[in-house]
Design brief:
There is one protein chain. By secondary structure, the chain is an alpha+beta fold. 16% of the residues lie in helices and 44% in strands. The chain has helices spanning 2-29, 78-81, 217-221; strands at 35-46, 54-61, 65-69, 93-103, 106-115, 125-130, 135-141, 147-158, 161-174, 193-207. A hairpin with a 3-residue loop joins strand 2 (54-61) and strand 3 (65-69).
């Protein structure tokens, strides 16, 4: 019995060490990414929303500043819709290993990230990571029967950084839980569920162009304290 427990304990420790390395590797990989701007095209494939594609420009500055500019009415899903490599720092989460799997022929690990009490996050994440390339491939946000958001990310390389070229959001939630979608009266109907996909394409990256904090000033004033 003692031998079995020792073997189990050793395997568990090794697995936890690999989990930690996977998150550390992502943080190290993108440590030099200070900011980026990129053109975005948002396409809706949702029964409850009939809208043309929307275009805008997204600005990101590490660690967590984000803004989208557009000349027209624009809806951009912040949950899973933009790439923030500093989102999953291990200091903010209790990390549980769920499984190892093969994703597009490569070794991946699936993790459950539970926010710690001192964390600024309030939702559980299920994250699939390509171990060899240190890439986040899928994110499930607060998975439950009432609210499901799955993010699937495709990448290209720009100025030495792997950055998204396409993000697909798969949505299934009640209208009352859909923040940032009040522009569309379809979602104000009581009892209405939002289901379908949002596809976001990214092009014309500018990386580490020393974006000014002034760009994000109005968004900061609206952040909850």
């Amino acid at each position: 019995m003692a031998v079995i427990l020792f073997l189990f304990s050793t395997e568990w420790i090794q697995a936890q060490e690999e989990v930690t390395r996977a998150l550390d590797a992502i943080e190290k990989k993108y440590s030099g990414l200070k900011d980026y701007s990129v053109d975005v095209n948002v396409h809706f494939d949702m029964e409850a929303l009939k809208a043309p594609d929307m275009q805008g420009k997204l600005y990101y500055k590490a660690p967590d500043k984000m803004k989208v500019e557009s000349k027209k009415i624009f809806f951009f899903p912040k949950e899973g819709g933009y790439f923030n490599p500093s989102l999953f720092k291990k200091k903010d989460f209790d990390v549980n290993l769920l499984e190892y799997l093969t994703y597009e022929g490569r070794k991946n690990v699936k993790l459950k990230l539970i926010p710690k009490e001192a964390s600024r996050y309030h939702q559980i994440f299920i994250v699939t990571i390509d171990i060899d390339r240190s890439l986040i491939r899928e994110i499930d946000i607060s998975p439950s029967e009432e609210r499901k958001i799955k993010t699937i990310i495709e990448y290209g390389t720009f100025d030495g950084f792997d950055l998204p070229t396409h993000i697909e959001l798969q949505l299934d939630m009640s209208a009352s839980e859909s923040s940032g979608m009040k522009e569309f009266p379809q979602f104000g109907q009581r009892g209405k569920r939002i289901t379908g996909k949002v596809e976001i394409s990214y092009s014309n990256y500018k990386v580490n162009s020393d974006l000014s904090d002034e760009i994000f000033k109005d968004t900061e004033s609206r952040q909850p304290k």
